[in-house]
Amino acid sequence: MLSSELTSYFAQACLLPCSQSQWTPGICGCSLRQTDVTHAFSVAFFVLPLQQYVALVRSLKAPLPHHAVVSPLFTITTRMRRTLLCLTRSCTKPSALGTSVHPFSSPIMKVARVTAWGSPPEYISAPDLPPPSPTQLQLRVVAVGVPRAVRGRASGQHPSAKGAALPFDPSIDGVGRDDATGELYFINSLAAPLFAERANVERSQLMKLPAGADPVAIAGLSNPTGSSYMALRCRAIGGCAGRTVAILGATSASGRIAAMVARQLGATRVIGLARNEATLAAVEGLDVRVCLRDPLIIPDDLGPVHIVIDYVGGPAAVQLLQALQPPPGENLQYIVVGGLAGYERMDLPMRLINVKPIILMGSGKGSLSQADFDREMPGLVNTLAKMGRTLDVLAVPMADIQSVWDSEEVQTKRMVIVP
Known about the structure:
Blueprint lengths: L3 H10 L20 H14 L2 H9 L7 H4 L8 H11 L19 E6 L8 E6 L8 E10 L2 H8 L18 E4 L6 E4 L10 E5 L3 E3 L6 H21 L8 E5 L4 H12 L4 E6 L2 H5 L6 E4 L15 E4 L4 H9 L8 E5 L13 H6 L2 E5 L7 H18 L5 E5 L3 H4 L9 E5 L1
Parallel strand pairs: 8-9, 8-11, 9-10, 11-12, 12-13, 14-15
Antiparallel strand pairs: 1-2, 3-4, 3-6, 3-15, 4-5, 5-7
Helix pairs in contact: 1-2, 3-5, 7-8, 7-12
């Protein structure tokens, strides 16, 4: 509780309607000096819990004297700095006409949040950000991709969303701009909530983009590009330079990009496998195209394969493992990245594993370490910057996210949220 003296200060100086347009020593007809008011706020700051203090100040019926909020005492501790920001950022200064408006309207910014699992994110208001810490940079969010993983997080089904509370930001990564310098940065996975106008991000989670980079393209393609890039750089033993890479699911967005990534990383031959022959024919960067049949028929002249990137899974994956042959004396490295076929299991015959040198592995958050991501992010970002808009990207204003989320248009395009 406040002392009687402090209560009197607030009653006289703050809680009564003020007929004055400016704060003066004779405010509200009483004889309080400016130092008295400042002292009252300083004492209240130390006496009351933070939330009660902020609530008290926001309940004032008269404009608050600027000197009372910006007391030097408020710069001593982190708690004081937080409160100072909370109060001063919401103050409305007297206009040129000398009139004052009650200063404590809460500072806000626009965000998109899932408010019910399985429903599209809603465009809502949220409290503004605190100032960034010395290890952080506050960025204006420019573009945020919406790959399958983001939709999985929005539904609550993705492992990274298990146990999360509502409202929830399902974003993963994106691109932001430093307003002070104009420089663009790629923001690493889960470094900050990005369905927002601004984000405070640890500097260690930022990668500066080269001049001329397309932020919308990078945000839209980071997830599909990263899947094959990390698989070939971190999971494939010995990399793919000078080798043959086969892509199961080559007509998917990730599969199309995987062909280009394999080329950039030095693969000498790239084989694409998919069910739709016409769509497969349009995929760029492939040396050989194999249409999936049941049973799978591999051309006799296909030759040995070093690495397989599998985006499909299920029976097609088993048939491919049975049909492909590795180079003499080497292993067939089979990297499972996705499961577009929808199967939870891959049933491999024991004999297949016994008679063929196969290394079966996955590539994803669980199989890749943070050190892997830290090491490879510069190369991945540079690869993204060089690729441009290799897929059809749809830029959607964040204000329209709820109406566009499940629209037909986003079924065939890479959706990117533009705050």
